Amino acid sequence: MKNILNAPFIIKLAATCENMYRLGWDERNGGNISLLLGEDEVSEYLDTSKILRVIPTGFEAKELCGKYFLVTGTGKYFKNVKGDPENNLGVIRIAEDGCNAELLWGYQDGGTFTSELPAHLMSHMVRLKQDSEHRVIMHSHPTNTVAMTFVHPLTEGEFSHTLWQMHTECIYVFPDGVGVLPFMVFGTKEIGEATAEKMKDFRLVVWAHHGIYGAGKTLDEAFGLIETVENAAQIYMLTEGKERINIITDENLKALAENFKLPYRKDFLD
């Protein structure tokens, strides 16, 4: 059996957590990530018949029974993941009842997975129906994205349109736009359900005054989606309140979308 600390999925997720903390997206114990793993990946490093603990998830996810996930821990700091993955991460398998998680590795100090796991599982189920190659749900608190929710209308069409206008890369990276939720109490079933509902149409969902959820086939894709939104939100906040004498017009955006044959949301343009 190979040493799991050398597993590419551990190394990559730890590096991603470190980078997100460095960028200021995940202060203190903020943020969480779950990565869907294949049984063949896991079995190279773990005896999948050896269950360390059974932990209730607080949510029934029968569609995910038997699925394996690498998940960040609750109350853990992203800055510590790389140096101490065994305490800050865990590999779980959704049990046959769909309501419990079987811990196969990690959370060595007696901890458990992120309190947002039900929201992650809901979004995973939705995204897998949209894209069979989907693997990642990523939540963070990027500063400018959060700031933008205080000064910008919280409608998806307007929010997406503004982000697209801030940088030419935006409509290319997320032609589907971004979903937007008003303020909701985090860590609840309600916000998880609302996020999953938005995930039917979007790979990105902004939580007003809180942060953003991103979904992707890989850690890099989910990270890159959030990174692009945050870059655009920063440009918006730097120019907000000032006269913008040059803008990216809707005609410019249409030209970009048509040139790259993007399946963009036409209803988000004037």
In short:
The protein has 270 residues and is an alpha+beta fold.
- What portion of residues belong to β-strands? 15-25%
Low-confidence spans: none
Number of helices: 10
How many structural domains are formed by the residues? 2
The CATH topology of the largest domain corresponds to: L-fuculose-1-phosphate Aldolase
Specify the biggest β-sheet. 9 strands, mixed
Shape: elongated
Assigned CATH class of the largest domain = Alpha Beta
Average pLDDT reading: 96
SSE order: HEHEEHEEHEHHHEHEEHH
Number of strands: 9
| Structural class by SSE content | alpha+beta
The CATH superfamily of the largest domain turns out to be Class II aldolase/adducin N-terminal domain
Radius of gyration: 19 Å
Description:
This protein is α+β, with helices and mostly antiparallel strands and 270 residues long. The protein has two domains: 1-114, L-fuculose-1-phosphate Aldolase (3-Layer(aba) Sandwich), CATH 3.40.225.10; 116-270, 3-Layer(aba) Sandwich (L-fuculose-1-phosphate Aldolase). The chain contains ten helices and nine strands. The protein has a nine-stranded mixed beta sheet with strand order 2-5-4-3-1-6-9-8-7, sandwiched between helices. Helix 4 runs parallel beside helix 8, helix 5 crosses helix 9 (219-239) and helix 6 crosses helix 9. The protein starts with 7 loop residues before the first helix and ends in an 11-residue tail after the last helix.
